[in-house]
Amino acid sequence: MRIGLLGTGNVARALAHGWSAAGHDVLLGSRHPAERKDIGLPVAGLSATADHAEVLVNATPGTASVELLRSIGAPALAGTLLIDVGVGLSDDFTELSHPNSSLAEEIQEAFPLTPVVKTLCTMDSTVMTAPDGLDGPSTVFLSGDDADAKRTTGRLLTDLGWPPSAQLDIGGITTSRGQEHFALLFMGIAGGLGAHTFNIKVVTRPPAQVLPSA
Ligand SMILES: NC(=O)c1ccc[n+]([C@@H]2O[C@H](COP(=O)([O-])OP(=O)(O)OC[C@H]3O[C@@H](n4cnc5c(N)ncnc54)[C@H](OP(=O)(O)O)[C@@H]3O)[C@@H](O)[C@H]2O)c1
């Protein structure tokens, strides 16, 4: 697929390399494309990246994402699946910019013709593309209102190394707030462990099949 990634930081680079290795046509979108030649993958401006993309990924600071998407414009984003990995955190990682909601909900409301799926934001960028590097399987969550968009996202997650059994569809876009608010616990766990390279796994009794929703 043609995948455009907004942002050129840790998350965008990791995902772009992961999907490129899986055979996808990736393009990173930057505010300053001429200054981002060191990535080893193509970089373009934000609108050119959106134009290129069948699937667009938001990997920009959650405090800036909506304004950035507005600069691209709703018509250019209409009909394009938007995978949102962003979280709006304060500089000291102690407060959320969407305390009673979520970034993904705000994006979905602002761009109603763009199906938004929230995923991957509950783990470090190093884990997003190498889930088998951990000591056992773990869980990645999906939130969104559009079933087709979630199915496509599920296939792209599989291409990064997340088998369907590791993917848990937790419901509509409002469930994104759970994923985003987990960021606060994530920072606590990272502090306790002294490391960011970990993930959580949902365990049940009796053993249940955890499959993406139809
Ligand atoms: N790092 C992680 O492990 C992780 C895990 C889960 C979720 N997240 C979330 O994923 C998103 C990306 O994280 P990241 O670690 O990749 O961030 P990052 O390294 O700071 O990169 C963010 C990128 O967004 C672009 N950008 C656009 N508008 C911006 C603005 N106003 N200020 C700063 N950068 C802006 C920049 O690219 P250009 O300068 O080229 O435009 C920048 O490289 C964030 O929302 C973060 O909360 C991160």
From TrEMBL:
SUPFAM superfamilies according to UniProt: NAD(P)-binding Rossmann-fold domains
Question: Could you tell me which InterPro entries the record lists for this protein?
Answer: NAD(P)-bd_dom_sf (IPR036291), P5C_Rdtase_cat_N (IPR028939), STEAP_metalloreductase (IPR051267)
Say if the entry is tagged with keyword Transcription.
Answer: no
Origin superkingdom:
Bacteria
Q: Which UniProt keywords apply?
A: Oxidoreductase
Q: Enumerate the spans annotated as Pyrroline-5-carboxylate reductase catalytic N-terminal domain.
A: 2-87
Q: Which Pfam families match?
A: F420_oxidored
| PANTHER family in the record | DUDULIN-RELATED, REDUCTASE
Put simply, this protein is called Oxidoreductase
* Organism encoding this protein: Streptomyces camponoticapitis
Lineage of the source organism?
A: Bacteria, Bacillati, Actinomycetota, Actinomycetes, Kitasatosporales
